[in-house]
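If you are new to this repository, start here. Below is one unmodified record pulled from the training split, so you can see the exact layout before writing a loader.
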Amino acid sequence: MPDRRISFRAPPGTRDLLPPESWEWQALSRLAIDSFERAGYAPVETPAFEHTEVFARGVGEGSEVVHKQMYTFSDQGGRSLTLRPEGTAAVMRMVLEHSLQRGPLPLKLCYSSAMFRQERPQKGRYRAFFQVGIEAIGSLEPSIDAEVIELGHRFLLNAETEPRLLLNSIGHPSESCRGGYLDKLRSFLRAHSSDLAEPDRQRAETNPLRSFDSKEPSTIAALEDAPLITSHLCDACRDHFQRVQDLLTDLELDFELEPRLVRGLDFYTRTAFEWVSSNLGSQSALCGGGRYDGLSQALGGPELGGIGFACGVERLLLARTGPSAPSLVGVYIVALSDEARREALMLASSLRSAGVGCDLDHSRRGLKGQMKDAVRSGATWAVILGDEELRERRAGLKNLRTQEQEQVPWHQLEKRLAP
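And here is the target side for that same chain:
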């Protein structure tokens, strides 16, 4: 419990990441980046803040993120800056600034970064949070859609989150596709305006597609008979979507078509996808992404297709069903005298140099206290050193899992404990 006597606390909507959850967080982030790098996605990092226009133009003035959730401020030079609310627009700005699109395409990039949004705090959703994600930029082929989705699904399976994949196409902004559909959807929403929840009435005009994102029961009921985007796709978008489905079927990846699935940011086009988990309750969204073929042009760049996804690490931790991540500390050294403590420090250094995770006591506790700490550390082995062990150049070696104990000659310790 927090100490109420402390004057300063973390700002509302934020939190401190403490052990043992911090171990889980690090293990999950490493799993994500390792998974993505094995498919050729190179890690990148963008600044924590950008010129506000990057998000206003990229994400869209009409989006809820820009309109209500961004942390925006003016610096001493009078420039409007915004803390990064999402990763994709910032990565695209980076690509264009450094002319990476002039090299081999597609660019395959990944990240694990902090994001910031002024949204209502709730379980697993904070105002300062972390996302892991990938972006594949420079290809319009359905095959890159399938690769990105398959990578995300495999990562979520390896993270033991029991993901369920939902798939849709939201078409292209042209009048022959999404543009024409939005006119029909607006007409429907106007005709049923009295049935919509109050927060959704304005959204129906400014960003009608987001109406399908509403969690209000009255709005959900009103949209039961609304026209669906999949019935109004142009031939090119319909063909692209079918080819993506065929490729996912080839990969033996199960998915569910969800014609009401939309994305929350304005730059998305065509393929939209989301993973949900029954372990998260009513707020079941686990991870999501899609195509953003118009984002580069919105930021002043050339026509440049792109697709990606992002997962909130906090949401992933809530959804996990597997065991906790194992501790990286494999050995705990228990020292029972001043001379043993000197030897313990040198032994710990030697073991760490050999790649063995190792910890030891620095508080002069007795045998019982140190053994409790050894168990808490998650170590598999306890090495016990006393004056007798030092004289005979041996150590007590106890397996903390099986409780078996033996005496091991000093010169054999490193070999016995090496990974």
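Two things worth knowing about this chain: The longest strand covers residues 107-116. Residues 21-37 form the longest helix (17 residues).
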